[in-house]
Amino acid sequence: MPRPFHSIALEPRRRRPKRTAGLAVLTLAAGLLAAVPAEAAPADQQRQRDFAAAAQEFGVPESVLLGVSFLESRWDFNAGTPSTSAGYGPMHLTDLREAGTGTHHDEGEEDPRGDDARQAKLPATPAPKPPPPGLQTIDEASALIGQDVATLRTNTTQNIRGGAALLAKYQRETGGKDWYDAVARYSGAKDTAGARSFADEVFDTIAKGVSRKTDDGQTVTLAATPVSPAREQVDTSKTECPKKVSCLSVPAPYQELPNNDYGNHDKADRPTSQKVEYIIIHDTEGYWDTAMDLVQDPTYVSWHYTIRSSDGQIAQHVPTKDVAWHAGNWYVNAKSVGIEHEGFAAKGTWYTEAMYRTSAKLVGYLARKYDIPLDRAHILGHDNVPGTIPSTIKGMHWDPGPYWDWAHYFDLMGAPLSGFGRPGSPLVTITPDFATNQPAFTGCETAGKPCPARGSGSVVLRSEPNESAPLLKDIGLRPDGSASTMAVSDIGSRAETGQRYVVAEQRDGWTAIWYLGQKGWFRDQRTTSPAFGLVVTPKPGLATVPVFGRAYPEAEAYPANVPVQQVVPLPYTFSAGQRYSLGNVLGSEYYWATTFDPANHVVVKGKTRYVQIQFGHRIAFVKADDVRILPAF
Fold first, then answer.
1. Average pLDDT, stretch 282-289?
2. In the predicted model, what is the mean pLDDT of residues 324-352?
3. Exposed, middle or buried: residue 281 (CB in 10 Å: 0-12, 13-18, 19+)?
């Protein structure tokens, strides 16, 4: 049954439909369709006029049309490129035929468990399931408004019309007097909980109002409109999730397998046994149904949560007290929660607002639960997790990729990333403008071919202060000593929004930061913000200090029944005179878990202390005894 939405209860009346035969058009409550007169509106309000015109044409409340579009795309055009779930334009009309699929995970050979003592032996990844019909809405919109699908992908005016026509059709087919069920259906979710969660977020946005400038310079405003939809209480009793979001329980199996093997995660007792220090952000490189199949396969690997693109639906798979196999570094796995996001790091180039919002709520909830700071030293991308030893660096993954909007994500969590340091501080936070910062990456579709021009949080670093200088070298990724490239998957010379670095030099409008033992240069055009914090440098008398990918204990700390895990340095140089941002001070730990029976698991804690630093694109660890910690001034 449709649920009452009292503040926008719109009764149908007879009228002649415009341009679209056979489509029932509904009247609007007074004041909800105040279109801006074309002759009075400036050019940067064309999109606002398009929303108003489409709302009037198809009988959709303008506030509803704006709210749905904001939750899908934030009203952006995204240069005509698809979202990570094949959606195009402000209304996120989906066209899988054009967007296709792709995977970056095939490029690496990462062991997701990341433990020398017991590697996860993965079966071949099965062929992905066909995506659901909800990922081909552009065909239906095309038929409704008489425009071809290519036009709907590339023309924002027609894209908005197509979305409005779909909403009107859904409202008519639900048979209700309100718009709640039509909005829920627009999400594309197959389950009721996910669809209603999306609708709730849309109507919350309508109630609060929002205004912003889009990625192509259009000013759009959704005025706050009092609404009071009848909401059903979300049942999160079987999951660890924030209230008022839809959270499914889709358990990953903890199962004994032949040949003394088991999968697909490890039982633990966090935070009693070990403190949870990190939340790791991933993308699935596949669609929702495929991810659900994989995480329920006991011979595969695991992660704690998945978030769906279309509506922000959350599924929890592993209790957060247990250790999932997701980050490729056992030390990080043992001290983190992993969240996968439906989508692709490069094939599609933007993530939906519905996904960002639900994910931000989940991360905020987990950060409060485990006392995790909301900063980029603790909320990491998979691409920020270091290789464990030299041989594993090259195989580490690089999701969620350079098109994940970290600044917006942290704004949604109420923890903006812009620095608060004094002007001239030697410690800076990377804060480029996401929309206008468009590095010329290659390989999103085809190796070596330019990616579509697209906003990014990544800042490319060069070896000298000029645009033609080579990129930096990452000896871990390229042991032959060759320079990094502009391939979208190559993170060897790239800083990311929210990360903090120490200024090494400034010259002629360029700034250099210490990065992997080198000076990395970028043109400083509002690319950084000054930051407060602490910095790390070698102790006097030490020419260099070793850098590690994990913070394991000294040999003496291991009991007789637990094999000693070697502390092997990474192939980088941290020299005297260089300084790096401090992210955390940590004790040394190793979680020995190689048997199905958790009674045999042991947490080994040593006396060695480590300091986490922002060393390159990835974090790293140095021994506290090797370094000095200083204020950044």
1. 90
2. 92
3. buried
pLDDT band at 614 (very low <50, low <70, confident <90, very high): very high
The more confidently predicted of residues 624 and 125 is 624
**Rg for the chain (alpha carbons), in Å?**
25
Interval 53-58 mean pLDDT: 98
Please give the structure tokens belonging to residue 503.
Answer: 């200024």
CA–CA distance, 354 with 310 (Å, rounded to integer):
7
Amino acid identity, position 343: G
Average pLDDT over residues 438-446: 93
Q: Where are the domains of the chain?
A: 544-631
Average pLDDT, the chain: 89
Instruction: Tell which residue, 94, 90, 85, 51, has the closest CA to residue 71.
Output: 90
Angle at 411 between CA 405 and CA 415, to 5 degrees: 120
CA torsion sign for 263, 268, 270, 275 is negative
For β-strands 336-341 and 305-307, DSSP reports them as parallel
DSSP structure string for 593-616: --SSSGGG-EEEEEEEEEEEEE-S
How far apart are alpha carbons 181 and 165 in whole angstroms? Answer: 15
581 burial via Cβ count (<10 Å: 0-12, 13-18, 19+): buried
Q: From residue 192, give the alpha-carbon distance in Å to each of 140, 247, 274, 290.
A: 22, 12, 37, 20
Residue 183 CB partners (closer than 8 Å, separation 6+): 64, 67, 68, 167, 198, 199, 202, 203
Task: Please compute, for residue 596, the number of CA atoms within 13 A of its CA located in the half-sphere on the CB side.
Answer: 12
pLDDT of residue 286: 85
DSSP string, 558-591: S-TTSPPPP--B-S--EETT--EEEEEEEEEEEE
CA–CA separation, 264 and 115 (whole Å): 14
Compute the distance between CA of residue 64 and CA of residue 336 in angstroms, rounded to an integer. 39
Identify the DSSP state of 392: G
Q: How many angstroms separate the CA atoms of 59 and 422, rounded? A: 52
d(CA 81, CA 231): 35
Q: Report the pLDDT value the prediction gives residue 97, as an integer from 0 to 100.
A: 78
User: For residues 548 and 389, is the Cβ–Cβ distance under 8 A?
Assistant: no
- pLDDT, tens digit, 9 for 90 and up, residues 522-536: 998 789 999 999 999
3-state secondary structure 49-82: HHHHHHHHHHCCCHHHHHHHHHHHHCCCCHHHCC
Per-residue pLDDT of 20-39, as tens digits, reads 333 233 333 323 333 334 44
Question: Which strand (E) or helix (H) includes residue 357?
Answer: helix 353-370
Q: Tokens 């991360």 identify what position?
A: 363
Task: Give the model's pLDDT for residue 81.
Answer: 87
Task: Round to whole Å and give the CA distance between 559 and 67.
Answer: 59
Q: How far apart are the two ends of the chain, measured CA to CA in Å? A: 63
